[in-house]
Amino acid sequence: MSSKVSPLHRLGGIVPGLVFAGIAVACGFAVSTHWASVSPLTVSLVLGAIVGNLGLIPHSFDSGLKFASKYILRAGIVLLGFQLSFSEVAHLGSRGFLAVIAVVLITFFGTQYIARLLGVSPGLGLLTATGYSICGVSAISAMTGAIDGDEEDATYAIALVTLFGSISIFVLPVLGHLMNMGDVRFGMWAGSSVHDVAQVIATSTTYSSHSLAPAVIVKLTRVVLLAPLVATYGYRHSRTQKHAEPHEHPHVGSQRLSPLPLFIILFLLTVSIRTTGAISLDALSNIKQIEKMCLGLALVGLGAGVNVKKLARLGARPILLGLSSWILVLVTSVITIRLIPLHL
């Protein structure tokens, strides 16, 4: 008998979680209707986190919530491309691009230096640096595959970006208001300093709906830098191990470097379509509503995945590494984004 799971069975496995996420998103939009200053996406995230940490989400919901936080999130980002055009992206300019590169490089090498000072393993230092400087979990996964990294180091690094990225969602908007940041400037700060794409979306929309577009533009500029960074370290690793005996490193040469993620390519395609002006304003408005619903579903899944008890069990040195790197990227980015013009 075949052990393969049928597509219909897989679909049935994700439905309960998606229904729960849909109810949470509906609540988010209802709250936003009564209090216009409250983003429905923020409410969706908070509801997912609260219900998840109270232990009220059955295990049967897990598959659907993970599906939402990964695949539906990517669909939402692709649709978000219809709200942007390359003329807006071009306003980053050379100074803006250099500012983003500066944040990535300072965070990447600075985090590894901090890891050495704390006596943290080089593997954990490298993976944490990759996650903080580029795009969180996906960057850590790509680097782990490229260097044949240790799974325990990857787990710690993922826990750190999840913890401090989640904290950013609530802390950065407060800091932004204290510093009297404009909506566009704050979006740039969130895009250049927060780890995962979902966390960037949650952070920017918590501050203002007008912060989302600049946040995504800056964030995806960071994501594009993942390919050369991972390729460089993958090449270095293969060069280091090429003279090793096959029985000592049986997986050497078997890993494949991650190309630019498909959802980013599709995002660039939708931006291209929007730039042509071929889509009517009514169609764009409808797409925007679908995009909001997709992002809302994704953020419920993201919130439900934040396990406070599990994160609290991390050791002191990894926590200190995560905290130090978080402060480093926040300070570096808030300084460098002042180089970016405000014409988005």
TrEMBL record:
Predominant localisation class: membrane
Any one of the GO CC terms: plasma membrane
Entry-linked InterPro entries: UPF0324_pro
Pfam families attached to this UniProt entry: Cons_hypoth698
Topology of the protein relative to the lipid bilayer: Multi-pass membrane protein
Subcellular location per the Swiss-Prot or TrEMBL entry: Cell membrane
Keywords tagged on the record: Cell membrane, Membrane, Transmembrane, Transmembrane helix
Family classification: Belongs to the UPF0324 family.
Transmembrane portions of the chain: 12-35, 41-59, 71-90, 96-115, 124-144, 156-178, 320-340
Protein's name according to its UniProt entry: Unannotated protein
Organism: freshwater metagenome
